[in-house]
Amino acid sequence: xxxxxxxxxxxxxxxxxxxxxxxxxxxxxxxxxxxxxxxxxxxxxxxxxxxxxxxxxxxxxxxxxxxxxxxxxxxxxxxxxxxxxxxxxxxxxxxxxxxxxxxxxxxxxxxxxxxxxxxxxxxxxxxxxxxxxxxxxxxxxxxxxxxxxxxxxxxxxxxxxxxxxxxxxxxxxxxxxxxxxxxxxxxxxxxxxxxxxxxxxxxxxxxxxxxxxxxxxxxxxxxxxxxxxxxxxxxxxxxxxxxxxxxxxxxxxxxxxxxxxxxxxxxxxxxxxxxxxxxxxxxxxxxxxxxxxxxxxxxxxxxxxxxxxxxxxxxxxxxxxxxxxxxxxxxxxxxxxxxxxxxxxxxxxxxxxxxxxxxxxxxxxxxxxxxxxxxxxxxxxxxxxxxxxxxx
Length: 392
Hints:
This protein is α+β, with helices and mostly antiparallel strands.
């Protein structure tokens, strides 16, 4: 449905100024029931559509027990009145619709949202601050169900020789990185539980960032610069936040949030600059194929210091096999930007060259084996080997 783009009244008696907007937001989330009800009436009287995002946020906060100032029914009814849409209590549908609008939240929204989510983890309030620059739409930042580092990164993890890694099966998928004569394998059965490995490969400090919900592992060179241009090595962890069902990682040096897919800071002090991490080559292949290509490889040991069920598919096998009890379209978290060219969980090989992104369905690559193409102004050759292994 199209967004309701009616302009709110601009008369001095009905217009909500910035200071009042901040007060109204906190009354909605932290005030008494009567203060929250009065704030809601004021917003509806002014027909201030900036508060659509606030009510969507309150709907979710009410569902997960962060606020009780407003009744769930009141939130939905007034949200529908203000927006002109009718999605009931379906938070995923509201997020999907809102993403396609040009609506903006009231001033102070980022800090307000951070304070609201600080009821889950106080660090969330530090991440979300209006004083920090942002390169993304803060309304689209979603809580991913865990606290800061609730999915713990592996730092300089224990490695085994290939002969010692008797826990691995030949067919098992691994992420492989080879730099300066140093080859290392990171099995998915372990990375599924950690989503981040900060390591040193061939003398290069790397961060292997794995978003399990989108199945994307990207290796970054941790060496970069700060805002003053000074050399620095960043290490990363999982923030607990998502953006369009993709993890937002954070650097431990500044607590800036980063886009896992692009290696760019998006919210926090580093987002004021033009910092971008350099990509490193990483492959997804079978343990047997990786060993064949790199006989001297070492591999992540199963004794990580964490108590996890490190068996194939234990962490996310059900997610990729079962579309029930999910928000929509088989996704665990709603995403408004979608294409009907492929199914949402189809595997693709993605390239971004000359600022041009392109995705190739893996099943097509395996069928063709060799693909010659042009991405941007760069001629590429894609060579596919092996077969897709589904882990239930």
